[in-house]
Amino acid sequence: MTESFDASSPARAFLKLIDVMSKLRTPVSGCPWDLEQTYSTIAPYTIEEAYEVADAIERGDMADLKEELGDLLFQVVFHSQMAAEDGAFDITDVTNGIADKMVRRHPHVFRSPDDRSAVEQTHAWERIKADERASKASHASPSALDGVAISLPALLRAEKLQNRAARVGFDWTEAEPIFDKLTEETQEVRDAIQSGIRDDIEDELGDLLFVAANLSRRLDVDPEQALRRANAKFERRFRAMEAEATADGVIFADLGLEEQEAYWQRVKRGEKAPD
To answer: Among 201, 150, 128, which Cα is nearest to 43's?
Structure first.
């Protein structure tokens, strides 16, 4: 029985989780919902749990972080259990694989200790990863862009594609030319709007966002994190506008745009006002 596990050590706790997952997927006696799942149906939950981990970190909530990390770990065990049932691999293969990869990518720790800096290690890490991708390439012409997952959020994937291209020299060396490119792409969005062709508008907006991500990368700013901050700022200010309107005895949604904008400016001034 699962309850018999002594979960007082990391290894025993992990075995307990594996046992729980196995029982959930046991035909007849397992959970009907868990038994119906496939890699594809579970994948959205895996992505969601990763974002919830990031959210807990951003909020500095350690209790939530502990819970969300557990939820994310469960996703790993879930996929591994299904793979074991298919005869593809199991959780042992997964854990050994990642341990071996970390040893391989940290030769300065596990083989020839040295005092390289974090920057030097980052460069070494990327070289090792590139060698691994080249050795696994299934086609005759491996690309610097191989291995950038299509399923990544678009902004994050844009940054990764740009980083890969930069490693082979296809990159601006400073930020100023990127501002010129932003101006160019902005005008192309305007032209597309004038044309009224929906596909052209979408293409040009995509180009504009791609260049913005490149500028962020050149300035050593994580574009995903920058956008999360912008989202949080907008949400904070919008909620404050609603609250101030309520305090004034009016319904924010009933106001005209100019009146709403006045509340927006009031909230912004309030944020900048000295304590």
So the answer is: 150
